[in-house]
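2024-03-11 09:14:02 INFO worker-7 job=invfold-0412 stage=load source=structure_tokens
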């Protein structure tokens, strides 16, 4: 909160409509002020935005407040929640909304450089809020770093405030309000200068906001009305901004509305892809092919054993023959050998079939610890 001034609309301790007790001033602007207040009935801390007396009698500004209060129907964590719009005993129109604790994006810019990835996270969150508002036919028209609060200082909890009316002129961004327009020149889309606004106008403002947050200063819009119009017809200068943030800004802030993303929902989908962590390769996809090549017939293990047998002058037995089970084999060297003719280590002793337990013999899974090749039962029921 900031210090009180003699010309403030409300004073500390003042109670509005027998419900909201003013606790202090949060901010001041050209059209009104923002106060922190406490609901005496529920105890909930809220923010109260009040119009100056001059604007409280202006139908255009009251219409903006009324439009902003319509966001009560928008239920989204990325959009500030509104409670009611009322008039004080002194004739000031005020709007009650949730109080969001945290710095604005403008304050974060002043504190230091913001990383590009954090800005992508902020953009994703703000796009979610715009998507919810646009679904209800509400266009912000004044999106800027002042109107994005980082709840708890976290980029992933960015929240949009101030739909339809600007409150802060301290950054030097001039606010203009008319029958069909409310916004700041630095962040307003080109069509807004002509008095037109649509959902893609908010996307332009989001792109200009991201550029300002990365560089720490608002884009220069021009010093005269003619220069503003000329500059709004050119793309924003994004030189030095790293990808993919640069490409996102270029698409969002395209001078022609038709070249921008079709909707805030499309921006959310694009940022989902940009922010999705790269999936690590499944180790099983690398290990299992190697094991298959090692163990299956014709694999590297089988080739090593074939070469060992060939070096020993022995031929591999044909499929279906028993190896080392007491029969005369190709490499047994004479009747009833109980040694494996394929073992390159000199012939490990192989238990005879009769020496194996009946259950193990039936399953065909008993393997001597020193022999590399043991008869395996084939899929047709025979051993090989």
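2024-03-11 09:14:09 INFO worker-7 stage=emit residues=384
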């Amino acid at each position: 909160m900031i210090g009180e001034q003699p010309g403030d609309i409300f004073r500390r301790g003042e109670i509005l409509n027998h419900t909201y007790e003013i606790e202090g001033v949060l901010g001041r602007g050209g059209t009104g002020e923002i106060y922190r207040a406490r609901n005496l009935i529920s105890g909930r801390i809220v923010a109260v935005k009040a119009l100056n007396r001059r604007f409280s009698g202006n139908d255009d500004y009251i219409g903006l407040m009324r439009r902003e209060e319509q966001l009560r129907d928008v239920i989204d964590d990325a959009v500030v929640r509104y409670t009611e719009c009322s008039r004080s005993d002194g004739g000031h129109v005020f709007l009650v909304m949730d109080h969001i604790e945290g710095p604005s994006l403008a304050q974060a810019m002043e504190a230091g450089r913001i990383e590009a990835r954090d800005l992508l996270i902020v953009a994703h969150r703000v796009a979610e809020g715009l998507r919810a508002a646009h679904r209800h036919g509400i266009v912000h028209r004044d999106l800027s770093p002042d109107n994005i609060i980082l709840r708890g200082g976290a980029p992933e909890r960015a929240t949009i405030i101030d739909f339809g009316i600007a409150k802060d002129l301290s950054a030097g961004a001039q606010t203009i309000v008319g029958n069909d327009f409310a916004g700041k020149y630095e962040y307003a889309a080109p069509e807004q200068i002509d008095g037109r606004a649509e959902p893609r106008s908010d996307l332009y403002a989001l792109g200009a906001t991201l550029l300002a947050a990365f560089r720490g200063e608002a884009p220069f819009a021009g010093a005269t009305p003619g220069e503003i119009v000329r500059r709004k017809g050119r793309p924003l200068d994004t030189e030095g901004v790293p990808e993919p943030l640069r490409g996102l800004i270029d698409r969002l802030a395209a001078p022609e509305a038709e070249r921008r993303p079709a909707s805030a929902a499309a921006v959310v989908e694009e940022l989902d892809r940009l922010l999705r962590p790269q999936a690590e390769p499944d180790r099983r996809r690398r290990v299992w092919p190697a094991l298959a090549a090692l163990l299956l017939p014709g694999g590297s293990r089988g080739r090593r054993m074939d070469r060992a047998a060939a070096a020993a002058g022995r031929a591999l037995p044909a499929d279906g023959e028993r190896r080392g089970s007491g029969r005369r084999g190709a490499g047994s060297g004479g009747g009833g050998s109980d040694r494996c003719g394929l073992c390159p280590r000199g012939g490990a002793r192989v238990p005879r079939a009769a020496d194996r337990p009946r259950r193990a013999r039936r399953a065909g899974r008993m393997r001597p610890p020193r022999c590399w090749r043991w008869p395996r039962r084939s899929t047709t029921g025979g051993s090989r």
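2024-03-11 09:14:09 INFO worker-7 stage=report msg="Strands lie at 15-16, 20-28, 32-39, 45-51, 82-87, 93-98, 148-150, 158-160, 175-177, 182-184."
2024-03-11 09:14:10 INFO worker-7 job finished
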